[in-house]
Write a structure and sequence with these properties.
By secondary structure, this protein is mostly helical. The chain has one domain: P1 Nuclease, CATH 1.10.575.10. About 60% of the residues lie in helices and about 5% in strands. It contains 13 helices and 3 strands; from the N terminus they run αααααααααββαααβα. It has a 3-stranded mixed beta sheet with strand order 2-1-3. α3 packs across α9 and α8 packs antiparallel against α9.
């Protein structure tokens, strides 16, 4: 019976239409809503003031801005900032090798954090930095955004998932996160997974560590020695889905840690 329920659930995940965006709009918004629950009162005020000047209604909604503008001139300029690639022969992210001129997701997050922490910056500038930072930190935790250049983070790897053909990136971006209503809501999730005191407040170093962590998850769980046209089913799903849920929570907690620190620094 359990196996039958699992198969039916997966079938529904595939059948539900969705916008094909990184983590999907639903995943980004869940992360933003969860991050909000971890913010200090001071940080919530700081965020609200900056979201107002960039005309965004909530931390949940602003996480999708960089995807919402993808078809615009501004969105095209931001394109390379949604990801970074680490060679298959390497196991750690390296800024010089993997992020030339800081034009990658890690460099973009570093640049935004610098603005957010700088009290001499205008509220407008900090609002714009928060708007993009909230997206980069969420994308960073989707493992295939730190995948391989040779297959464009899984976009060029075709798979069949329970009979449905798609590319590997779409499977992780859009399929694995469906059925989010089965996860605890943000308030309950924050209670179940309390925010720990950050062990490292060197945020540039932390971002590099998190990029390496995502790449390792991509190698171990997303790629998992897959060949093109692989047929994937329940075993793959049961191994991957907990990683997706773990990364959603980590992304929210880490976003909140940085925003709390930025607000305290003003």
């Amino acid at each position: 019976m359990r196996k039958l329920v699992s198969i039916i659930f997966i079938g529904l995940l595939i059948a539900i239409p969705a916008r094909v965006m990184s983590w999907g709009f639903q995943g980004h918004e869940y992360i933003g809503a969860l991050a909000w629950e971890y913010l200090t009162p001071e940080a919530k005020e700081w965020v609200s003031e900056r979201l107002q000047v960039v005309d965004e209604e909530s931390l949940s909604k602003v996480t999708t801005w960089a995807d919402r503008v993808r078809g615009s001139e501004e969105g095209r300029w931001l394109g390379p900032l949604h990801y970074a690639n680490i060679p298959p022969t390497e196991s750690k992210f390296d800024m010089q090798r993997d992020c030339p001129n800081r034009r990658c997701i890690v460099g973009a997050a570093m640049d935004d954090i610098e603005v957010m922490f700088d009290s001499s910056q205008t509220v407008q500038a900090q609002g714009e930095a928060l708007r993009t930072f909230s997206h980069w930190i969420t994308d960073m935790h989707q493992p295939l955004h730190l995948g391989y250049q040779k297959d464009r983070g899984g976009n060029d790897i075709r798979v069949t998932f329970f009979g449905a053909e798609m590319n590997l990136h779409r499977l992780w971006d859009s399929i694995m996160i469906r059925g989010m209503d089965l996860m605890p809501g943000p308030v309950e999730q924050a209670s179940l997974n309390p925010l720990a005191h950050p062990s490292n407040t060197d945020w540039d170093a932390a971002l590099i560590d998190w990029a390496s962590e995502s790449n390792e998850l991509a190698r171990t769980y997303a790629y998992a020695d897959l060949e093109d046209n692989a047929e994937l089913g329940e075993t793959y799903f049961n191994q991957a889905r907990p990683i997706v849920e773990q990364q959603l929570i980590r992304s929210a907690q880490r976003m909140a840690m940085i925003i709390n620190a930025a607000a305290a620094a003003q």
